[in-house]
Amino acid sequence: MKKEVIMPKIGLDMDEGTILTWYKKVGDPVKKGEVLLEIETDKATTDVESAVDGTLVEIVEEEDETVDIGETIAWIEVDE
After folding, report:
1. CATH number, domain at 63?
2. Where is the Lipoyl-binding domain (predicted)?
3. How far is Cα 2 from Cα 60, in angstroms, rounded to an integer?
């Protein structure tokens, strides 16, 4: 089963975030709580962690792209 990774809402005034760095690449295993990528908002830079154990199977939004909150940025195939 695939689980989407969405652009999180970090602050009350946040409408979008920019992907700075992907720390994982397609095919990499990921663990719950492991950092997947770094994003930047108008006020801060923060890491986004995986919510599940699995394998990163697709990166939808690349580095330097600005994405609205709630939009899908990647997919993880969940370990059963």
Report:
1. 2.40.50.100
2. 2-77
3. 13
